[in-house]
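Researcher: Next entry in the queue.
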Amino acid sequence: MATEMQLFTVASLLRRGKALDGFSCGLSAIALGVGLAPLLGATAQPGTAILCSLLILLGVIQKYWALRVALDAELFQRLADNAEQLPMHTGDLDETLIKLKLQPANPVSRSWDERSHAALRLLRRQAVWLLSQLLLAGLIILSLPWLSITG
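Model: Structure for this entry, 151 residues:
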C-alpha cells in the first residue's frame, strides 16, 4: 500500500513536467516565429521552414506527454490529500479511467508502486521529447555557419 508521502512525492515530481513543458513551448514559439518570418518580409528559405516544422512537431509530441503527466500529477495529489481512503479511491479511479477509455479494462489491479513507476515513466518520456527538441535546436544553431537559412 502506498503511503501519503509516496503519493505526494510522485505528485511533486510529476509537477516538474510543467517546467519542461514551458521550456518546450518557448522553443516552439521561437520556431514558429522564425518559420513565419517570411510573412513579415524576410527572405523565405525552404531549409528554415523544414527545420522549424520539425522543432514544432517535436514540441507537439512533447505537449502530448506533458498533458498526460499533468493529469497524473493532479490525480496523485488528490490521492495524497486523502491517503486514508486510498483503497476506496483506487477502485473509483480505475472505474473512471476505464469508462473514459484512458485505461484498458484489466481484471488485475496494479499496485501503487507500479502506478508510481508508470507515471514517472511518462515524465521521462516527456523529458526525452524535450531533449530531442533541444538537440535539434542546438544542431541548427551549430550548423548556421554552413547553412544558408540565415539569409
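Model: Residues 46-81 form the longest helix (36 residues).
Researcher: Noted, moving on.
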